[in-house]
Amino acid sequence: MAGETAAHRTLIGGTGAFPTTVYPEIVEVKQNWDDNWQFEPELELVSAAVHSAGQDLDRLTVRRRHGTLIHPWESSLSYHPAWSGGKAWWIRLGLCSGQGYQQAFIGQISAVASNPMGGTTGEQTWTAYGPAQILRKIDVSKSYWYIGEEGEEEEKELGWIPDMNGRDEAGMLVGNRTAEEVDDVCYEYGGTSTWTHYDYAKYLLAKFVDESDDDGPAWTLGGQAYVLKDISETIQFEASQTVFDILRKLIPVKYGLDFTVRPTYAGFEIFVYSLSEYPSSYSTKTLPANPNQVAIRTGDTSYVRTSQTETSADHVYSTIRVLGGRIICCCSLFGTGHESDRAGSLVPKWDPDLETEYLAGLPADPGEESTAGQNDQFRDRDRFRAVFQQFGAPAYWEFNDGRANLKFDSEGNVISGEIADAQTTVRSTLNWIPLREGYDYTTATATTYGPSDLEAEFLPPAAWLPDLDLEDPFSEEQIWRPVEKFGLDLSVTKNDWGIFINATPNHFLAKNQWDDAEASEYDPDLLGGCDYTNLCCTVAFETDQRLTLEYKIPGAGPSNGVKDVLVDDATLWYVAAGTVVGVDSVGDLQFTDQPRILRNDATRLELVMAGAVSRYFWERSRCSITCEGLYPWIGLIGQILTAVHEGSSIQQIHAPITSIEWTRGSGEGGGGGGDTTVIRTGFAL
Predict the structure, then answer these.
(1) Is 13 within 8 Å of 301 (Cβ atoms)?
(2) What b/e readout covers 667-681, taking b as 16+ CB neighbours within 10 angstroms?
(3) What DSSP character marks residue 458?
(4) What is the residue-wise DSSP string for 237-291?
(5) Distance CA 152, CA 142 (A)
């Protein structure tokens, strides 16, 4: 059949392309998949249609007359009883042409309607849906795991579905599939390897759909499914959803992909195809062209009844941007007591009037003094919560002279000498930092000293204060300790770039700031308190930049259209130069000497951009071509209709064929009587 095989620029039309004779349809049924097909001449085609997954369900309608009548192959009247069976039976439609028999539709009968015509005479109408309906009727609410001690793993069926490649609190991709295929069939849950969309689609079909081991249809992946091996996203699942809906997520339109369900000798195939006539590339990633392309010549044949084409630029954009999540910076802030050029990047964040009131203690009557206990009880009030405890970046912070506000190119590389634009008003500190437990970040390449069989956790924000060397109490040398070693609790500020230290009492941190204070049962200058001006902390926050790719026609302006495609979970993390990453064995602070990229998802965005360019850079055309006769062109679904030739004119289409529809006319046999085949193109929604 013309256009059914994978051939570049197949041409339909012209001399000899259309058969001169179109034979009647052949309708066959069977109750079970492993039964033999039974030819049922009494079942007559009414209409049929096959579609891409992005359009509609395949559908077949046939009719059967019953009662005392004469069928075309009979020589006399005979009685044909009404048929009581058929629901859930398999049914297929074959069309015959000069090129032989071709299967046009296969599915399962879903409904029957009866139309009595008097006496025992009547007509039954049967409706069947294609194999995509099977996928729509399989709900998935469980998952298969292959777990256990090494060498003793076993498959377990659990009653919930984890996200595919879940993400931790930091948004980091966490693989959760096995390292090897189980029984050489498919991967399952139960490991730390990352799923690709191809892996998960194969698992989905094998564990929930395929019936080849039970004398049912086999389900496979085909077409350009290999493109799915390059996609590894996080997919969140509901408590229960259909196989079809999951496949729509695994074969995403945003990547310029769609699929159709095609029959095979043993069952069905999820046939994946590119929506683009041309390969679309960005940097290192390429969305391949759809290799199956067809042109239709309408002017050279009398079989084409009508041809309608609509071209629209509604979805054309001259500027396309793929936007990741906001870039995350990890850096250190230093109190005013430090000697470095970053001193003063961590300042008090409490009202000075409250500090004055705190130092004064409980107001006493004239001529009287409050006791130390009364003063401390007064200072314990909620209104003083921030005093000596809340710290953050200055109101007009310069981001450590720009070290904490670097500018990056589209590949996630630091642009040397350039500082990104930033604001200092809307602030929030993350409750984690992109440094992992058990790693040494002072070396050129981070090295681990933690357990090799455990996934390292992200560290919380950290803060340090100097203390006397307790191992040598006669030494005046100070060593740095985490604030937790002083019995202090550390948290971050949600409306600022900074930290909150919970001390008891607050003025534990007010050493060298306590000269003018009224009496207290705890004097930080005498009882081992700390000086908050010596604080340093390492925190992380979202910057004002996103990881961004842009594809733009030179000179394009806003009126030419700007399309943003969001991939919120793709981001970039970096540690600014001069960030404190820990304390060494002798108690000295350890710093990074250069900015370090800890995560870069730029390559994840590249295939999204390639797909976006293929979808939004070209005009879209929808075409409807109606031919007289029934033609077995099911294989055209998913092919790109490149052009329609109408005599000397050529109408460019550049759109995938999304539907083939057949309608049986009133004539008997042959190609006349109003039989039609309609080819429609469109685009995945």
Answers:
(1) yes
(2) eeeebeeebbbbbbb
(3) B
(4) --SSEEHHHHHHHHS-GGGTEEEEEEE-SSEEEEEEEES-SS-EEETTEEEPPPS
(5) 23
Q: What is the dihedral of CA 455, 459, 460, 465, to 10 degrees?
A: 150
Burial of residue 483, with CB atoms counted within 10 A of its CB: 0-12 exposed, 13-18 middle, 19 or more buried:
buried
The 10s digit of each residue's pLDDT in 569-584 is 888 999 999 999 999 8
Mapping DSSP onto H, E and C, the string for 481-501 reads: EEHHHHCCEEEECCCCCEEEE
Candidates 405, 437, 412, 449; CA nearest to 168 is 437
Residue whose pair of structure tokens reads 């250190």 in the numeric block:
332
> What confidence tens digit (pLDDT) does each residue in 141-183 have?
999 999 988 888 899 999 999 999 876 655 566 778 999 999 9
Q: Is-contact 337 509, C-beta < 8 A?
A: no
Q: What is the pLDDT of residues 482-514, one digit of tens each?
A: 999 999 999 999 999 999 999 999 999 999 999
Strand segments, DSSP code E, in 117-196 are 122-129, 139-140, 143-147, 154-158
pTM beyond 0.90: the answer is no
Q: Could you tell me whether strands 498-502 and 447-448 are parallel, antiparallel, or unpaired per DSSP bridges? A: unpaired
- Count Cα neighbours of 161 within 13 Å in the Cβ-side half-sphere: 21
Residue 5 Cα distances to 277, 294, 636, angstroms: 16, 11, 9
Smallest CA-to-CA distance from 63 within 42, 38, 77 is with 42
Alpha carbons 78 and 653: distance in angstroms, whole number: 52
